[in-house]
Amino acid sequence: MENKYKWFLNINYFLLDLDGTVYLGKNSLPGAQEFIDYLQSQGKKILFLTNNSSQTAMYYVNKLKKMGISVSDHNVFTSGEATCMFLKTLNPKPKIYLLGTPALEEEFKKNGIELTEDDPEYVVVGFDMTLTYEKLKKACIFIRNGKKFIATHPDINCPTEEGLIPDAGSIIAAIRASTGLDPEYIIGKPCKEFIEEALRKIQAKKEQTVIIGDRLYTDIKSGLNAGIKTILVLTGETRLTDLEKTNIKPHLIIQSLKDLLHMLKSLH
Ligand SMILES: [Mg+2]
């Protein structure tokens, strides 16, 4: 192993993207289960990060379980939970008007955050698959009247079996079209807030943390924005040729988690 990758030995905290990194659709990627088992056997801390704020952590625990990957809900961090943590740094008892699914509403309530349709302090936009005209109208009126506007993540579309479907970014765009206003904060990848809240959740030290993902402009960028190490895997969206056309440079590029496990074992 080249000396320039010795930093990897000091890594104790692993932030992992899911789709394109651990699995592709319904199937786990080669070596993913072994990689996660190995990290757990070595006492390393794992946190899966997902921008998807329409589902709970348990949804991902169950999805991973079907692939033979056994983790608890403490190992999954959604942009919804990160948004709750972040909001409480702004105000310990924030009053929120939320555009979100029942799962996201539950997440906010679990975090002790009051949801209201009456004089909120903030309007929070998530991946609201239960969006109605009435909800959109209320959000726009609150925002135009000066309520603070926050979004869980910026993704314009979400890939599904039916094709791309409008995600939180498209709802933000609708609000922007009506009000002319953008969110004051967006929490999910590529924003550094998501990583900072993830570090806080698992009490990780920046210099001992790496993010592993398949997208340069979300996973890798969020890690670089937050000042942690970054590893790009080529099992998802990014091709080697994409790296010639970007200034987003990961600390390490590796084919898959299978190869990363091999490298990790060779270092010990
Ligand atoms: Mg991905």
Overall form: globular
- Largest sheet geometry: 6 strands, parallel
Order of helices and strands: EEEHEHEHEHEEHEEEHEHEHEEH
Q: Ligands bound here?
A: magnesium ion
Oligomer: single chain
The tally of structural domains comes to: 2
Overall SS class: alpha/beta
The CATH homologous superfamily name of the largest domain equals: HAD superfamily/HAD-like
Number of helices: 9
**How far apart lie the N and C ends?**
11 Å
Which CATH class of the largest domain is shown? Alpha Beta
Unreliable runs, pLDDT <50, ≥5 residues? none
CATH architecture of the largest domain: 3-Layer(aba) Sandwich
Helix content: 25-40%
Q: Which fold name fills CATH's third level, the topology of the largest domain? A: Rossmann fold
> How much of the sequence is in beta strands?
15-25%
Tell how many strands the DSSP assignment holds. Answer: 15
Q: Report strand order across the widest sheet.
A: 5-4-1-13-14-15
Rg: 19 Å
| Mean model confidence by pLDDT | 96
Can you tell me about this structure?
The chain has helices at 32-41, 57-66, 79-90, 102-110, 133-144, 168-179, 192-201, 216-226, 257-267; strands at residues 13-16, 23-24, 27-28, 45-50, 76-78, 95-99, 114-115, 122-125, 148-151, 157-160, 163-166, 185-186, 209-213, 229-233, 252-254. It is globular, with a radius of gyration of 19 Å. The longest helix has 12 residues, at 79-90. A six-stranded parallel β-sheet has the order 5-4-1-13-14-15, sandwiched between helices. The model has no long low-confidence stretch (mean pLDDT 96). By secondary structure, it is α/β, with parallel strands linked by helices. 36% of the residues lie in helices and 21% in strands. The protein has two domains: 3-51 and 189-267, HAD superfamily/HAD-like (Rossmann fold, 3-Layer(aba) Sandwich); 80-186, HAD superfamily/HAD-like (Rossmann fold), CATH 3.40.50. Magnesium ion binds at residues 17, 19-21, 213-215, 236.
